[in-house]
Amino acid sequence: xxxxxxxxxxxxxxxxxxxxxxxxxxxxxxxxxxxxxxxxxxxxxxxxxxxxxxxxxxxxxxxxxxxxxxxxxxxxxxxxxxxxxxxxxxxxxxxxxxxxxxxxxxxxxxxxxxxxxxxxxxxxxxxxxxxxxxxxxxxxxxxxxxxxxx
Length: 150
Fold this sequence. Notes:
This protein has helices at residues 5-20, 28-35, 39-51, 76-84, 109-125, 128-132; strands at 55-58, 64-67, 138-140, 147-149. By secondary structure, it is mainly α. The protein has a two-stranded antiparallel sheet with strand order 1-2. α1 packs across α3 (39-51) and α1 (5-20) crosses α4 (76-84). The longest helix has 17 residues, at 109-125. It starts with a helix and ends with a strand.
């Protein structure tokens, strides 16, 4: 699985807004300058975030964008799936029910399902607030996939 620039930039934009807004609206120009993202690409990304109700917008002189909720309410998973769509590591997991004719006999399918679940669980365990507070370093502590802060 590879996260595209769209997903990476969506995460950066959400972090930028969380760090710089203090409840106020932030202009795209300011975000663009801080994040070194072109205005054209930023407009596309902010449109996705706005349609997903992750940000609120306001027009006018003091307009711009701010988070619709607290940074603790956004997981990395929610942001990346909004921007990217399906994050399955292999195409046979794109749908809830595998359409692959070999699925019933596939020896690798359980591995791919486990990898997908591990990725999702980790991304759901990290919030914007965690990233802002630099609490994203997690380690696996045992085979039951418990995650602890390091």
